[in-house]
Write a structure and sequence with these properties.
Largest sheet: 10 strands, mixed
Oligomer: single chain
Number of strands: 10
Radius of gyration: 20 Å
Distance between the termini: 57 Å
Length: 342
């Protein structure tokens, strides 16, 4: 049995797929398999997968399925694999040659449930490479090659890590119980947060193990469509739902509230009518509704970490108060809609 499965979710990426596969075949660590999942891609991706699967049958395994979205790929791949660990490598990205070796060695030595590495940002139109530590340094400073244990206070610092799949090695059992919604994006957030809540031991390394193409057309990172807006809401509500029973730290709920604020901020960038914008914002309020029962946990961390000014802090507290929440949100939403230029 192989030690690692690398999941490659594939949809409309024929331009990038060979480079991704080649980076995997060039790994210094050899005890792994690639689960190349064609998610009903309409381009020539399936032919490229067949080519590599035929040439490297011991490494690359092709899975062909109808289109169901990123979450459906993760659900199927995690259910099929038998390896102890897995990593997700998006097909428009690629790995450093020693990425799997470095991540696996740290996992093996420390008996970690998750190993999280830094990454490099790369771009379509130039050769620039920008290092990203993969967490928010404005709030915490993570220790390199250090084992974070669940019941220690410092474990909560891991919730400031970028939830994207890059440079993350997961123990399979951390994700087996996750229910991924289909036909929506942003399900990598669900993978990260629920796996982290399941984990007992997590290692962070400042080595950049992945190269992340940030400006590919169609990349969810820059998607400001109403569909993407609603998908974000659905996924984060699902994260909170699936977290029930896992005894999350207060910091988890604070980070969920900060995710709401990020989604709210993105609403100003959508290209929609004012009526559509109001509908999207009403949908966003359903996320606030699932956070209100965790008001105390959110405010416990909010007072230490928020960078909001006094007026905004007052609104945030009213927003989380069931007596004033809807009225407060309606004022916020109406102000956004009134100032929006179609």
């Amino acid at each position: 049995m192989k030690k690692i499965s690398v999941i490659v979710p594939i949809y409309n990426v024929e331009k990038y797929l060979r480079k991704c596969f080649d980076s995997l075949l060039e790994q210094t660590f050899k005890d792994f398999e690639v689960l190349a999942v064609n998610d009903g891609s309409p381009d020539n991706s399936i032919e490229i997968i067949k080519e590599y699967a035929n040439k490297y049958p011991e490494v690359i395994k092709m899975i062909d399925k109808p289109n169901g979205g990123y979450g459906s790929v993760l659900q199927m791949a995690i259910a099929r694999m038998e390896t102890e660990y897995f990593l997700v490598c998006d097909p428009d990205d690629y790995l450093a040659n020693d990425a799997l070796e470095h991540l696996y060695n740290l996992a093996n030595i420390s008996n970690a449930d998750i190993v999280i590495g830094a990454k490099n940002y790369i771009y379509n139109d130039n050769t620039r490479v920008d290092y990203d530590s993969a967490y928010n340094k404005a709030y915490v400073s993570l220790k390199n090659n250090y084992v974070y244990k669940k019941h220690n206070e410092e474990f909560k610092d891991l919730l400031f890590i970028d939830p994207s799949p890059h440079s993350k090695l997961y123990r399979r059992t951390m994700a087996e119980s996750i229910q991924f919604p289909c036909k929506v994006g942003y399900t990598d957030n669900l993978l990260f947060y629920i796996s982290l809540l399941n984990a007992q031991r997590v290692v962070y390394t400042d080595k950049a193990c992945a190269y992340y193409l940030v400006d590919r057309p169609g990349n969810s990172m820059g998607d400001i469509s109403p569909k993407a807006f609603d998908a974000n809401i659905l996924v984060f509500k699902e994260i909170v739902r699936q977290a029930e029973g896992l005894k999350p730290l207060d910091m988890f709920y604070y980070r969920m509230f900060e995710s709401y604020k990020f989604i709210l901020l993105s609403s100003r960038r959508m290209v929609v009518t004012k009526i559509e914008l109001h509908e999207r914002l009403n949908n966003l309020y359903t996320f606030i509704e699932v956070l209100i029962p965790h008001r105390k946990a959110i405010l416990n961390e909010y007072k230490h970490y928020t960078k909001a000014k006094i007026v905004e802090q007052f609104k945030d507290r009213m927003l989380l108060d069931p007596k004033f929440s809807k009225k407060t949100f309606d004022k916020i939403a109406n102000k956004i809609v009134d100032s929006y230029e179609e």
